[in-house]
Design a protein that fits this description.
The protein is of the alpha+beta class and 317 residues long. It is 28% helix and 29% strand. A seven-stranded mixed beta sheet has the order 2-3-4-1-5-12-6, sandwiched between helices. A five-stranded mixed beta sheet has the order 9-8-10-7-11. A four-stranded antiparallel beta sheet has the order 14-15-13-16. Helix 7 packs antiparallel against helix 8. The longest helix has 19 residues. The two termini are 31 Å apart.
């Protein structure tokens, strides 16, 4: 069923000179019929996504000062947005596909299809309180003042605690510098993302409870008319991610040690075994990058020879 809901007001907001209206005619706008792909516009998430798109062969030309770019050789328009807005745009059907965090999707409360997890941008949404208060039971914060950029999830988390204790937790939204709220006397605790914990510790805070584990994900609108392009993007991204996780290992073994060698390198699916002119076997398969050195040591110890590894630039499984 085609998505026919009216476009929300923000869908027509100009993004650095570009309107997202489907009747766009301004220079640099999305050509009619293109699949619209929203990606984070800045920060470490943009850098990761940009490298991933390049590795997946989704190249684009971006004019200076514009937040819209056209893909090369594909009918795809890339739209650069704050990560916190992307789930809304995808859920409302203003763009077809996007990359944002699980936390943003949950907070936005929109219906999207979670196509795949991307394996980067991993962190946790946590309740954090001043170390000096030595709070070990999060329920003691029920009825207090909580500052966060995730008000809906925060209310959802404290709701059962409030019901149990007969309290009403006061949740206040701020868009940034959440960790400063306790030090300024504005909150008893905060709910914020924790990656390494450096910012949290610098603010004198510690984790009291974990609400959600999050990472970057690829999402699409369930009613998108570009299912074929969405699937193509998924396959390309999946191929690139696989290539980043694995390397190809190749080595030679004699029949008497082949079973031991295959136990060391069972492969992602199964090894490729080729018979050599001298009767030995050449084995090749994928192994996890993190295990490369250990696998080579184990193979050498068994008696394998000519052990080589090869980096992958892309793949299709």
């Amino acid at each position: 069923r085609r998505h026919t809901a009216a476009l929300p007001t923000f869908a027509y907001r100009r993004i650095e000179g570009i309107s997202l209206s489907t009747t766009m005619s301004t220079p640099g706008a999305s050509p009619p019929g293109n699949c619209k792909f929203a990606i984070p516009k800045k920060g470490r998430l943009f850098e990761k996504v940009n490298a991933m798109l390049k590795g997946a062969g989704i190249n684009y030309r971006r004019e200076a000062r514009l937040d819209v770019a056209l893909a090369v050789d594909l009918p795809i328009t890339l739209i650069f947005l704050p990560a916190s807005d992307i789930a809304k745009y995808v859920g409302e059907g203003n763009v077809d596909i996007g990359i944002t965090g699980i936390d943003i999707v949950r907070e936005s409360g929109v219906e999207v299809e979670r196509i795949m997890d991307l394996g980067f941008g991993k962190c946790k949404l946590c309740v954090q309180a001043p170390v000096a208060k030595n709070i070990t039971d999060v329920s003691t914060l029920a009825g207090g003042r909580i500052v966060t950029s995730f008000p809906d999830m925060t209310k959802e988390f404290f709701g059962p605690l409030d019901k149990e204790k007969g309290t009403e937790t006061k949740v206040k939204f701020v868009s940034g510098s959440v960790e400063a709220a306790c030090g300024l006397g504005l909150a008893d605790a905060v709910v914020d993302l924790v990656e390494t914990g450096t910012t949290m510790r610098a603010a004198g805070l510690e984790v009291v409870a974990e609400i959600l584990e999050t990472e970057a994900i690829l999402i699409s609108n369930p009613h998108s008319e570009h299912k074929d392009l969405v699937d193509l993007i998924k396959r390309r991204v999946d191929g690139y991610i696989t290539a980043q996780k694995y390397v190809m290992i190749s080595y030679n073994v004699t029949d008497d040690i082949m079973d031991k060698a295959l136990a060391v390198t069972p492969g992602k699916k199964s090894p490729n075994v080729t018979e050599l002119a001298d009767g030995a076997k050449a084995i090749s398969c994928l192994i996890n990058k993190k295990e490369v050195v250990k696998k080579m040591d184990d193979l050498e110890e068994i008696g394998a020879t000519d052990i080589l590894t090869f980096e992958l630039s892309n793949s299709r499984m």
